[in-house]
Records
---
Amino acid sequence: MRFTVAIDGPAAAGKGTISKQVASHFGFAHLDTGLIYRATGARVLAGENAVPAAQGLRAEDLQRDDLRTPDVAQAASKVATIPEVRNALVQFQKDFAARDGGAVLDGRDIGTVICPDADVKLFVTASDAVRVERRFLELSEKGIDVTREAVQADLKARDTRDSERQTAPLKPAADAILIDTSDMGIEEAVAVAINVVQSKWRN
Ligand code: DC
């Protein structure tokens, strides 16, 4: 059985939590594709060139515990503008999407490039102010020393770079269902997403 759920959107809109919970609700596998760009970015920060870093990515690179920092996020967004980097990562993502038993992938270009035939496409957004507050709290809770201003600058720089790049920019697929989580708690946002997936699942 193949069933693919593509979830795209900007950083800190809630797509990570929604994806995990949708996957766990339906028993599907979940791939946070941002992690593979972050792992590539982390290798670049450690001195490698971006393209060989992406080509040589290993499973254990995704397990590093420093991938959630703002520095790595910026490095990820930068390597993600390089077409050869994206090319090196496409097949792994497509194979994951086609796995038996169902899959949820979240990222920026899942519904548009990686899985244009996904069974369900969601585009998750939230207002800039809400995203800044969420990411600020998330990083602070992890003990990462940041200010709201720094978080705002990080998100703005990445939004612009991720949406304006030539290859696979962040944008909703024509057939994506939009979920604006600005005025929703996480449980409500997850429930909305589960309802949409349920309506397409085994119909
Ligand atoms: O989802 P995230 O914030 O962990 O992603 C980090 C960066 O990786 C993001 O700013 C852009 C890039 N990315 C991408 O270009 N395509 C994806 N499918 C996922 C992430």
Note: The CA atoms of residues 32 and 106 lie 5 Å apart.
---
Amino acid sequence: MNRTYIGDLSSHAGETVCIKGWVAVRRDQGKMVFMDLRDKSGLIQGVVLPNHMEAIEAAKEIRTEWVVAITGIVNKRPEKNIKAGVVNGDIELEITGIEVLNKSETPPFDIGSDTREINEEIRLTHRYVDLRSDRMQKNLRARHKVIKLIRDELDADGFIEVETPILTKSTPEGSRDYVVPARLYPGQFYALPQSPQQYKQLLMTAGVEKYFQIARCMRDEDTRGDRQPEFTQLDLEMSFVEQEDVIALNEKLLIKIVETLYPEKKIQQIPFPRLSYTEAMEKYNSDKPDLRENKEDSNLLAFCWVVEFPFFEKTDTGAWTFTHNPFSRPKPEHVEWLMNKENIGDILTTQYDVALNGFEIGGGSIRNHDPEALKKVFEIMGHTPEAIERNFGHMLKAFGLGTPPHGGIAWGLDRLLMLLQNEPNIREVIPFAKTGEGRDPMMQSPAEISVEQMLELNITSIKKKM
Ligand code: ASP
């Protein structure tokens, strides 16, 4: 018999069907055994009556989380037993046959509860079980829907998704890089991308004009609640645009996501309010202010744009460094200051950040596509001509070979999803998350590698004494 999805059972009343899935709950009442059965589409209560001898015997063996194929008759519930507002609340499955497809040892925790209460290390160790819970299934599916909507909307707008390399080059760009030894080039390393920043700009040189990517980014930072060693960005870049164009497109896309997929949520203010960095710091002491009028309301979304950031700031050692992105263009009226390397602390960038309920969910800028101006940025930061050439020569070269003016943005997709799904941290919306300390207790990663692998890679391991 063909399989019927549990979510479709209500249209099969009176029929004999076959369903396949997991035993969510089992209650042995002696003569009868009740079972809640679950598949990706929903839940149904089943009952094995005493007259189905073989099925009763099988049902007595079964435990929760076993995988079964069940044959049964879809019965309408008597009026008084109907559970209003519950999927399949008006039907019940009279189980006539049970085939066990896979047994389960006692699950490490109860996935019928809100798993947020359970020790996270245990959840992450058995993530494949944890992901079966109703809330985690909803998070997985919501993530898919948001990404699909983004892809559809940007596609309709003439964007194309382009994959950029995962094995790339270490450049002093902001955070610490994860590096990969290059076996064929002893002593040399690839780096994993902190973001596709340079590639997406080079795609503008390449004539793509409208690029996006659902991109994985890796940064070797100390992890925190809303950080992970790897995370996902919606990364995009457009040619021949000004700040207003990028802001308008992103605002439209964010509104579309909320209105289509989260109709229960309310955006506090449209168009999103804009604040300068100075205003945000003076009024809210934050460059990602939480503008919600009512912080109790879990369905209130207060987006805002923060603009006019300083381009440079002083490091602890007194040198200049960039605040956001070395590839940003200063505001048009400050380009001259950059070229003359004067009033450095006063130069403002075209950077725009988008914040939501006190979290930065995205940021981008109009880029500096003039090679001479870009060189000045690195000179101000004290890079020698040789270091500029070694680290960024390819960018400067490309900008001398017909690169249109361009700008873009990247969203922290995990953070956005965390807020939309009312979750307390990004690990709840990342299918296979790592712990707060950057470990994967399921795969037991990071892990040592064999001496043979090390020899092949020409690396030796020196453990620092802690
Ligand atoms: N690449 C930048 C980041 O990861 C975002 C951007 O400017 O587009 O923060």
Note: The chain has a mean pLDDT of 95.
